[in-house]
Amino acid sequence: MRNFAFTVFLSFSLVFCSHALYCYQCGDGRPNGPCQEDLDIMIKDHALHQDNGTNHTSSEYTYRKQCPESEDTCVIERVEINGVVVAYIRDCSDGINFSINASRFLNFPQDKNITTCSYVQGKFFTCLSMCNTDLCNGPQAAPNTSSSSKTVPFWTMVFLVAMSLYQ
After folding, report:
1. Segment 34-77, tens digit of pLDDT
2. What span, in angstroms and rounded, lies between the C-alpha atoms of 32 and 43?
3. What angle in degrees, to the nearest 10, is found between the helix axes of 2-17 and 145-166?
4. Fewest CB within 10 angstroms: 24, 27, 102, 145, which?
5. How do the residues of the chain divide into helix, strand and coil, expressed in percent and rounded to 5?
6. What is the C-alpha end-to-end distance of the chain, expressed in Å?
């Protein structure tokens, strides 16, 4: 019985502690478009996400997207021609494939918290920023300590109960 209780606790802990990555998703094909300028709305999305984002429906968010398991990186791609933005993209990525294929973007370090720029075919100036935490590819709201302060004691209590059953 003790082993069963511990196994159940461990299984639930793994399920509830793991989660998919969330990124901002939008795109502009012109300078100063909403993907570059709607920072206040993105901050509202971030604040809502901090307030236990799983309790809110996806329709409550403007720019937040849950990434598929195969895409563990958030990106911002900025493409310019003659200093004019022709593409600005925030999205999920697998960290390998991007809208502009440039040799500079092929071998990134594993931590993926990086920004690099390159001229592509001597015509496009493109910058790529990659990161791997929730909504890291856009503005961040002030930290919400209330949700994390509620989560830690709950999991501590569950762990202590499970350990007492295991002994």
Report:
1. 999 999 999 999 999 988 766 777 788 999 999 999 999 999 99
2. 17
3. 160
4. 145
5. 40, 25, 35
6. 11
